[in-house]
User: Fold this.
Amino acid sequence: MTVLHVNNLQTWFQTNDATAKAVDGVSFMIDKGKTLAIVGESGCGKTVLATSVMRLFRRSGVSHPTGQILFRNQDLLTFSEAEMQAVRGRHIAMIFQEPMAALNPVMKIADQIAEPMIKHLKVSPDAARKQALGLLEQLGVPAPDRVMDTWPHTLSGGMRQRVAIAMALACKPDVLIADEPTTALDVTVQAQILRIIKDLQKSMGMATILITHDLGVVNEIADDVMVMYSGKMIEKGTVDSVLFSPKHPYTEKLIAAVPAVDKPKQKLAAIEGQVKPATTSFMGCRFAERCEDVTDRCRSGDHPAVFSADGHDVACYLFDKSNPLTRRRVTSEKKTLLASKSAPADQGPILEVKDLKTWFPVQAGILRRTVANVKAVDDISLKVNPGQTLAIVGESGCGKSTLGQSILRLVKATSGSAHLNGSPTNILEANRRELQLMRRQMQIIFQDPFASLNPRFSVREIIDEGLQIHEKQLSAEERDQRISDVLQEVGLNAESRFRYPHEFSGGQRQRIAIARAIVLRPKILVLDEATSALDVSIQAQVLNLLQDIQAKYQLAYIFITHNLGVVRYVADHVAVMYLGKILEYGTADDILTNPRHPYTQKLLGSIPQIKKGATLPEPLIGDVPSPMNPPSGCQFHPRCPLKKKMDATGKDASSCAGKLPDLKQKGSNLIRCHFPDEKI
Assistant:
C-alpha cells in the first residue's frame, strides 16, 4: 500500500540574483514497510526534497510551482500550518543529520522525547515519560533512567543520535525520514543505529526515506534507490538493479568512486568537476559537462525525459528507445594500480615516537587538587617512514586526534619522546625556537576545512601566512608566485587566491587547506579525518590528489580516520587504537585481510559493503568507556565478543578482566590480546 506519493514536485527559492531550482520535477512513491534511499552529491537537492515533504521551509521566498505531496491521498501542499503541525511528528517524522542541532540544549532528554507524545497522543506527562523510558531501552541505551535526566551536551554522538531517533519514533509515525543519520558516526555506532532503525521499521511497519551518500548503507538497508543530480531524478529502481546494474553515467561513476576494503589498491574513479549551483540556468542534461558520453544533443533543449531500461527508470539519452545515443567510452575502464611504497634503504624513519602519554588532570575542590586523569593517549610508540602512510583508526574517544595533536605539540604531552628525521631534539620538550623550525616540517589538515580557514582572510593571505613566518627571504612577488603554483598543484585556478573561503565548495576548501599545508614543503602531514565530511566523489578527488602529492614530494602521512575503506586506499601501515592504547599494529594488507584482535575484526565487520546479498552486520554492543575510569585488565573486555563467546562455552577468560595484555608479535602484526589465535 502506497503511503506517500510525491508527484512532479518543484521547490524553488527566490534569491536576490536568481531563482534556485533546488528540486525540479521529482516524483516517487513509497509503500508501507519499505525503505527508499535517496543518494547523490551535496547540492543535488536530497535534503531540500525531504524538508519539502515535512513542509519545514518558511513561506517567504519559497515556492512550489508544480507538484503534489500526497499522504493518504491528501496533498500536504494544500495544508495550513496548523494542519501540518498535526502531521509532523505524529504521521511523518524526521531524524536530522546533526543530533546536537536538533535537540534543545535547555531541555532534559525525558522532556524532549515526551513532548510529541503529550502534544499528539494526548497522554499524561507520567505516561509519556514511561513510554520514553521504554523507547530508550528498546534503542539499547545503557542506564536509560539516568540518561532521561541528563542534558544533550553530556551525551556522546551515538547516544544523542539514539535520543533523536526516540523523539522521531515516539508517536509511531507512518513515514520516517532519516537525513544522513549516521554520516558523522563511527562504523560500529553506525551499525548499531542502522540495525535499530531497521528493526523498529519492521515492528512498526513504517515507510522509511533514507538520505545518504554511503552506498554500502544503501545496499544493506534499502529496498529501492533514487539517484538525484542537480535537483533532478536521474535514475530509480530496486537496490540490486541500480547498484549492480547501473545505467546512468553518473550512477556508474558514483559507485566506482567508493573506496572499499576488498578492492585492489588502485586509483579511485573520481568524478571531475562539481555540482553546479541551483541558480544555474541549464541547457540540456544537467550532468552533461561532467559526462564522458556527452554529445551536442545532451547540451541542448530540456533535461532528458525518464526512459525505462531493464526494469528501472533512467533520465539519459543513452536509453531513448526511439533514438538512443551510442556510448563514447569503454565502461570497464582500466584502473591504475598503486605501487607499494617502501622507505629508502639508506634512510630511517622520518618520525619516531616512544612511550607517548597525554593525560589530562581532573581537578576538584577549592584547592583544585588532581583527583583523576583522563588517559587520552597512554604509552604509544610508533614509526613513520618517508613517502609512506600510517593510518590510525578506532572509534571516537579512543585518542586518535589527541595523539596527532600531541606529536605536533598542539596539545601538551605528559611524557615520552618524538624525534623528527633523526634529530636528537625531542619535539615534546623543544623550546619555542626549536619548535618553530620543526613546525615547518610538520603540518596538519583538519576535518572541517571551513572551521580551519580564517573567513576574514583571502586564500592568498591564508597560504601566505606560513611563508611570511618561515620564508622571510622571499619577496612579495616570489611569495605570490609560490601561492599561485601551489594552488594549481592542488587543482585550483591561480586567480582563486583573491577569493574568500565562503566562496568555495567543501572539496575546494579542503584543497585550499592542503595547499596551505604543502606550500612550505613539509616532511610529514597529519590528516585528521580530512575526507570524512566530503561526498564520495569529492573524497575520491582529494584522496587521489593526496596520493599524487605524496609520490611527488615523498611526504609521510599520519592519516586519522574511521573510514576503513579509505584506509585500504591510502595506508601502508595501520595502528588500531582503543582508549588511548594500540591494540593492533601491522601492514595495511595484513590488518585488513587477516585481523587478529577482536576489536579490529568487529571494526572491519561493521563496514557497509556494496555486495549482492549483503545484510546489516551484528553490531558491536556498547559505547567506548570513559578514559578517566577505564575497565580493569584488557580495556576492551566488557564489549569483547570473543570473551563473551569463551564465557558461553566454558573457557577460562578471567585474565581478560585481571591483567592488561602486552603488545606482542603475532605473525607480522603486533597485537594486544590474551588470546590472539582465537577468532570471534
